[in-house]
Write a structure and sequence with these properties.
Elements lengths: L1 E5 L6 H12 L3 E3 H11 L2 H11 L6 H12 L8 E4 L5 H13 L6 E6 L2 H9 L1 E4 L5 E3 L18 E2 L6 H16 L1 H8 L3 E5 L4 H14 L1
Parallel strand pairs: 1-3, 1-4, 2-3, 4-8
Antiparallel strand pairs: 5-6, 5-7
C-alpha cells in the first residue's frame, strides 16, 4: 500500500506517518530519511547529492525527484511506503506521477492532516525540546516538567529559531500555503485525497486514519 501525507508544519503528519508505518509495516519516508539513505548508498546520485548538501546548496526539483525514485525502488519499499514531505509543489507532484506510472505504482490515498492556523502557531511556538534526549514538549499543551524530563530527567530545554511566531507565520507557514496548498486541489481532482481533522490527540487521529485505511 502506498500513501502520501500532506499537512502544514505542526500538523503532526510525521508523527502519524510513523504510527501508520509501524501498524502496517511499510517504511515511513520523510524527506530527511530519503536524502540520508541515498547519500549512504555511495552510488553516483548519492555522491552528487552529498556534494550538493556539503556545499549548502538547494536540492533542485530534478535532483530530489531522482533521489525519491531511487529510494522508493529499494527492496524495503516493495510492499508499500509512506511519503512525508514529498511532493511539496505541483512540479514535484507531476514528476512523482511520472515515476509512479513508469514503475507501475499506484498511490492508495493522499492523507491531508488539516489544522487551524491558531493551533499550529501554539504547537510550533510552544515547542520545548529536551537537550539530552530530544523528547518534545509544549508549553501550552504538555509543558516541560519542573523536576525534569520524563524520559531522562534532564532539566535543560532548547527551542528552534524558526519556531518563533514571526518566523513561523511569515516564512514556514507562508511558504506552505504558497507552494504546497495547491496540492490539495491537485489530489482532489484525482479522487485520492482524504482529509482529517488534526486538532485532536495523536492517538485519536491515528485511530481515525487506521479506520479509514481498513475501509479502502
Amino acid at each position: 500500500m502506498y500513501f502520501i501525507f500532506l499537512g502544514p508544519p505542526g500538523a503532526g503528519k510525521g508523527t502519524q506517518a510513523k504510527i501508520l508505518s509501524k501498524e502496517i509495516k511499510i517504511p515511513h519516508l520523510s524527506t530527511g530519511e530519503i536524502l540520508r539513505t541515498i547519500t549512504e548508498t555511495n552510488n553516483d546520485t548519492g555522491k552528487f547529492l552529498k556534494d550538493v548538501m556539503a556545499k549548502g546548496l538547494l536540492v533542485s526539483d530534478d535532483l530530489i525527484t531522482k533521489v525519491v525514485e531511487e529510494r522508493i525502488l529499494l527492496e524495503d519499499c516493495k510492499n508499500g511506503f509512506i511519503l512525508d514531505g514529498f511532493p511539496r509543489t505541483i512540479i514535484q507532484a507531476n514528476n512523482l506521477e511520472k515515476i509512479l506510472k513508469k514503475n507501475n505504482i499506484k498511490i492508495k490515498s493522499v492523507i491531508q492532516i488539516n489544522v487551524d492556523d491558531e493551533i499550529l502557531i501554539k504547537r510550533i511556538t510552544g515547542r520545548q525540546v529536551c537537550k539530552k534526549c530530544n523528547k518534545i514538549y509544549n508549553k501550552y499543551f504538555d509543558p516541560f516538567p519542573e523536576d525534569g524530563c520524563y524520559e531522562c530527567g534532564k532539566k535543560d530545554i532548547m527551542t528552534r529559531s524558526d519556531d518563533e511566531e514571526d518566523a513561523f507565520k511569515n516564512v514556514r507557514l507562508k511558504k506552505y500555503n504558497q507552494e504546497t496548498m495547491p496540492l490539495i486541489e491537485y489530489y482532489q481532482k484525482k479522487n485520492q485525497l482524504y482529509t482529517i481533522d488534526g486538532s485532536s490527540s495523536a492517538d485519536k487521529i491515528a485511530e481515525k486514519i487506521l479506520k479509514f485505511i481498513k475501509s479502502i
